[in-house]
Design the sequence.
């Protein structure tokens, strides 16, 4: 009887040791997985040049979309900029995935562009890469990286020739740019977002 009890105790001790070993291994694996995930998140935070998961998803989705023609983009061009109408009857131009309009006078015109960043074009990626790199322009020019009304913007200032440009990404797809002699913040105020909503209907 004592012998049976002794063997039973031995079996229970061995079983407990095995269970403890399995638990320790599982905790070690879980810890490694958690550490790897935390490390990846930390790397994204500490490396400003690394694409976020959201950006990667946007770039992937854009590649699958069918690019719009310049003619389709013309529908979202503004009728005027700061009260200035387009110059002449043929001052809207359309090319591959781009629409452009010129407004005001030939001496100091406003220019407006809509560019579709879908398909093989990388203008959306290039825009956000530029935000990360924050390069500066040539002598007597300046890039300004800031935010307007919730949109990240890049302004290119050329005070010597009194020409400024400000651009941003609309709907994670379209690069919108406006150029003129006014300060970048004033140019921003001329953008007609109600009119840009026409792009929401284009797939």
Sequence:
């Amino acid at each position: 009887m004592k012998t049976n009890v002794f063997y039973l105790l031995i079996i229970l001790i061995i079983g407990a040791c095995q269970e403890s070993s399995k638990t320790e291994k599982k905790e070690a694996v879980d810890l490694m997985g958690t550490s790897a995930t935390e490390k990846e998140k930390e790397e994204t935070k500490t490396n400003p040049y690394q694409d976020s998961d959201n950006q990667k998803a946007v770039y992937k989705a854009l590649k699958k979309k069918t690019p719009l023609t310049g003619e389709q983009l013309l529908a979202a061009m503004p009728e005027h900029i700061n009260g200035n109408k387009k110059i002449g009857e043929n001052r809207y131009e359309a090319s591959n995935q781009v629409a452009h309009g010129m407004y005001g006078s030939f001496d100091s015109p406003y220019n407006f562009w809509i560019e579709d960043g879908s398909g093989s074009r990388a203008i959306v990626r290039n825009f956000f890469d530029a935000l990360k790199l924050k390069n500066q322009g040539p002598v007597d020019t300046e890039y300004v990286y800031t935010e307007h009304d919730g949109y990240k913007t890049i302004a290119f200032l050329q005070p010597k020739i009194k020409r400024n440009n400000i651009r941003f990404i609309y709907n994670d797809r379209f690069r919108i740019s406006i150029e003129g002699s006014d300060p970048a913040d004033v140019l921003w105020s001329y953008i007609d977002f109600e009119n840009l909503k026409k792009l929401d209907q284009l797939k």
Remarks:
- The chain has two domains: 1-47, 53-201.
- Strands lie at 80-81, 84-85, 92-95, 98-103, 110-116, 142-148, 151-158, 163-170, 174-180.
